[in-house]
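User: Sequence recovery, please. Input:
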């Protein structure tokens, strides 16, 4: 992969990403690509968004112009990411509903399923038996997995440099798998996207001068999903849970909490990992570093366990999920506050009913117990 041509391709992709990003920064206001802060934002001033356009144009141009045969070989995938890209650009400019997003993601997933044959047709090996999926169930599982993770990565895009850095770690792990098993599709796609991300992070690291927007996070989520589907041809299915752990765990916990509170799982709030860590640390930079380190650790665990039993991997992942679920349970504090508040009210009511005479008798009773303890024990 790292031939002289690949190095030139990488440099060209990097420079094009920088060039296009600067162009979007310059004309962000005119083209309606300005992110206005709200109560969930970590930034306080209007900031250009849509750097995902720059990344997509950079690596797509290089691939189409210099690797046309490769693009045609996986034409379903490239049409699919183009659809997701258009969706992201439209969402950055106008905002779209979650249902509409899921519909377009489903169409893009159908393309990679039917045109390129990229599918989840097995649930792995369990107790020595591989669970093969019938055609219809394989399609449903593939739609669910791609739709779920594409939205998961979109949801973690909440701090400067976070979504880009997490994607970088995940794609590097997938590149390693592609290299280890000589899969050109995984290697080539992850290589070009990694180069674009490195260029983008020059502008997006705290304090960010531009955000990737949905044109970036949705496309990245879709690409990672598809590469992961290809990767399970070589590694255990549950390995992917570790390789892309932070977005997956974050989404599971957040959506579960919302449902517990009787809210829509898609309702925006400040219960994500990055929100909670930011409240604890008070620093965007430190919060992002913590989550990157966490993703590196979990991705490394996934790569180490890639040939292990799905049973062992799933049990370990569920333990990690449970620990995070408990650690990030803000209802614990609320329940404790409620308990102490109710106890205080009951004590105050009791004290109001107790007479002065009863208080003296109770005090004498305690003194007699203490005296008896001293004499007989």
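Assistant: Recovered sequence (377 residues):
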């Amino acid at each position: 992969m790292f031939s002289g041509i690949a190095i030139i391709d990488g440099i060209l992709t990097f420079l094009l990403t920088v060039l296009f990003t600067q162009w979007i920064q310059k004309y962000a206001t005119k083209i309606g690509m300005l992110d206005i802060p709200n109560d969930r934002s970590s930034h306080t001033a209007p900031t250009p968004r849509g750097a995902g356009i720059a990344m997509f144009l950079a690596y797509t141009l290089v691939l189409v112009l210099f690797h046309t045969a490769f693009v045609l070989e996986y034409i379903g995938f490239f049409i699919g990411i183009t659809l997701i890209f258009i969706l992201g650009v439209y969402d950055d400019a106008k905002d779209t509903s979650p249902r509409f997003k899921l519909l377009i993601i489903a169409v893009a997933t159908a393309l990679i399923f039917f045109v390129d044959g990229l599918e989840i047709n097995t649930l792995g090996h369990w107790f020595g038996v591989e669970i093969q999926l019938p055609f219809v169930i394989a399609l449903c599982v593939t739609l669910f997995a791609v739709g779920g993770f594409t939205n998961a990565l979109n949801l973690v895009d909440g701090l400067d440099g976070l979504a880009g850095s997490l994607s970088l770690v995940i794609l590097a792990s997938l590149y390693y798998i592609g290299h280890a098993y000589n899969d050109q599709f995984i290697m080539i796609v992850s290589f070009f996207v990694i180069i674009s991300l490195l260029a983008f992070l020059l502008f997006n690291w705290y304090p960010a001068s531009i955000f990737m927007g949905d044109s970036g996070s949705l496309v990245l989520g879709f690409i990672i999903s598809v590469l992961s589907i290809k990767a399970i041809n070589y590694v255990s299915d549950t390995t992917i849970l570790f390789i892309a752990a932070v977005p997956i765990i974050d989404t599971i916990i957040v959506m579960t909490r919302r449902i517990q509170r009787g809210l829509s799982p898609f309702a925006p709030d400040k219960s994500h990992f990055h929100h909670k860590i930011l409240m604890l640390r008070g620093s965007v930079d430190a919060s992002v570093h913590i989550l990157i380190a966490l993703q590196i650790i979990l991705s490394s665990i996934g790569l180490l366990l890639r040939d292990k039993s799905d049973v062992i991997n799933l049990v370990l992942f569920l333990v990690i999920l449970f620990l995070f679920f408990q650690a990030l349970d803000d209802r614990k504090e609320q329940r404790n506050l409620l308990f102490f508040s109710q106890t205080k009210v009951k004590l105050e009511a009791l004290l109001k009913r107790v007479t002065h005479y009863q208080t003296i008798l109770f005090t004498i009773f305690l003194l007699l117990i203490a005296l008896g303890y001293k004499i007989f024990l």
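The mean pLDDT is 85.
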